[in-house]
Amino acid sequence: MKQGRTIAFFGSSLLSAYWNGAATYYRGIIRSLHELGHTVTFYEPDAYGRQQHRDIPDPPWARVVVYPGEGKEGVSRALESARSADVLVKASGVGVFDEMLEAAVLEVKRPGALAVFWDVDAPATLDRVRESPDDPFRSLIPRYDFIFTYGGGDPVVNAYGALGARRCVPVYNALDPDTHYPVPPDPRFSGDLGFIGNRLPDRESRVKEFFFRAAASLPCHRFLLGGNGWDVPETPNIAYVGHVYTRDHNAFNSTPRAVLNINRESMARYGFSPPTRVFEAAGAAACLITDHWEGIEMFLDPGREVLVARGGHEVAEHLRALTPERAHSIGRAAYRRIRAEHTYAHRAVQLEKVLEGVL
Questions:
Q1: Full-prediction pTM beyond 0.70?
Q2: Coil, strand, or helix at residue 184?
Q3: How far apart are the C-alpha atoms of 212 and 28, rounded to whole Å?
Q4: Where in the chain is CATH 3.40.50.2000?
Q5: What's the CATH superfamily of 6-174+344-355?
Q6: Which of 49, 164, 258, 274 is the most exposed, having the fewest neighbouring CB atoms within 10 Å of its CB?
């Protein structure tokens, strides 16, 4: 991508991670694009209480435009102001006006500009359009210059290709080493295993299996649960800490003996979809235990840089055997691997090459 390109990005929120798991991803990608000389304006709605739960102030590396979450006047003005951009991006899961935006960015882009659909939940999107052939987005897919995805590997690339996508490119989650890094332990988050994740329909049963089942089998171990929406059983060894703001992620990851990643069901089914938590934990040199999904070895080496579990019983087995020394060794190995190969600076360079036709 040539220096000085302007990018208009319509997404859920850059300023708030509240009910918005993609915030870390957006921030890392956009900040790294800014550092390469590109100018990004991020358009986000005032919706779901996110503006009342901001994690960061307006950043110096992007201009943020917040439009009303109700009524179409505000989003229409935002679209009009984005008309002059070199690249127009519509991310999935904005939460309001999604259908309108998916069509409108294609209509307002000027000649010579690029339109990108950036799918941060490709498994859900693909399942939806397959089940509903009359879904309005289905007919728009071939009109986008690029489909970028949060992950998914060849299964997602092939699925989008079958729907007529011109080109689908996974742009995986990564680490922003200036945001996520090791810090001293924080007594608020002391324990044996920590997990952060909002309660979502296709995650809940997996959390019950991988987290609550492990906690039930290890009554003498202390478990920490962060995120929104959970009804925590009255179990003495589980501490529910509620929403964990971005400013506390490093402490949460650096303090327990291990931290747990649990993919949503659809992400695990497609594979090749490491969530932001994987990179945040590795960036803090945490010992990570993850549920099994295809493609993990592309990012971390099982047994040496990450521990992999196929159920709550294996999570419990890992914890029983995990000494502080081994936890430290695994965490440091993951830290070195991710910083060397999987930062948002790496992803931004990839994006430049893709948009310029080099890759």
A1: yes
A2: coil
A3: 31
A4: 6-174+344-355, 187-341
A5: Glycogen Phosphorylase B; (3.40.50.2000)
A6: 49
